[in-house]
Amino acid sequence: MKDKSYIWISFIVLIFGIWAVPKIIKKFEKSDLHVVGTAPKFELVDQNNKTINNVSYEGKVYLVEFFFANCPTICPIMNMNMLKLQDTFYGNMKFGIASITIDPTRDTVEALKVHADELGVKNPYWHMMTGDATYIYDLAKKFNLYTGVNPDAPGGFEHSGLFALVDKNGQIRCRIDEHGNPIIYYDGTTDEGVEWLKQDIKLLLEE
C-alpha cells in the first residue's frame, strides 16, 4: 500500500512538473526591462545628408547618445564602446544607433561623414546626426540627458556619457538595480555599462 501511495505521489509531481515547465520557460523568454517612457520625436540630418527621424527607427532596438566629434574627453571612450556594440550585433538589421552632435556648427554633414568613416561605422542604421543647435539642446532636455556649452570645458562643450536604450516600439527601457530602482540610462564610458547593454539589447531584440 505504501508503494502504491509513493507511485501515485510521484505521478502527481511529474504531471505538475510538465505543466509548470512551459510557464517557467515563458517567464524567462519575456524581457522584464523597465519601461521609462516614450522616446521623444526628432528629425535631423545624418552623415549621408539624409533626413532621419524617430520613424526611421521603428521596429528597431536602438541607442541614443549626445556627443561631438572634436570631444577630447569621454567621447572617444563612448565611440569605442559603440563600436563594440556595433560589432556584437553586426548584421542584425533590427539594431541601430542615433548619435546626435551638440556641436552642429563644426559637425556639419561633411564633417560627420569623415568622422563616421574614420571611426569605422558599418551599421546602416548608425546615423550621426546634426541640425539646429537650439533644437538639439531642447531634444537633449526631452531625453533628460545633460548637454551644455561651456567655453572653459575641454572642447567647449559638456555632456553626459549616458546612452538611452529604446525598444522596437519607441519606448525607453532599462534594467532594475539591486535595490529595485530603474537605472534609466546606461553608462557609455564603462565596461559594465557595455556588458549590461549587450545583455539588454539581446533581450529587446527577442521581444
**Unreliable stretches covering 5 or more consecutive residues:** 5-29
The CATH H-level homologous superfamily: Glutaredoxin
CATH topology: Glutaredoxin
State the helicity in percent bands. Answer: 25-40%
- Mean model confidence by pLDDT: 90
Radius of gyration: 22 Å
* General form: globular
DSSP helix count? Answer: 5
Q: What structural class is derived from the secondary structure elements?
A: alpha+beta
* Amino-to-carboxy terminus distance: 50 Å
In the CATH hierarchy, the architecture is 3-Layer(aba) Sandwich
In the CATH scheme, the class would be: Alpha Beta
How many strands, what sense, and barrel or not for the largest sheet? 7 strands, mixed
List keywords for this structure.
alpha+beta, 5 helices, globular, Glutaredoxin, seven-stranded mixed β-sheet, 11 strands, two-stranded antiparallel sheet
What does this structure look like?
There is one protein chain. Strands 1, 4, 5, 6, 9, 10 and 11 form a 7-stranded mixed sheet that branches. Strands 2-3 form a two-stranded antiparallel sheet. A two-stranded antiparallel ribbon has the order 7-8. By secondary structure, it is α+β, with helices and mostly antiparallel strands. The chain has helices spanning 2-29, 75-88, 109-119, 133-143, 191-205, and strands at 34-38, 43-45, 51-53, 61-67, 95-101, 126-129, 147-149, 157-159, 162-166, 171-174, 186-187. The chain has a single domain, classed as Glutaredoxin, CATH 3.40.30. Strand 5 (95-101), helix 3 and strand 6 (126-129) form a beta-alpha-beta unit.
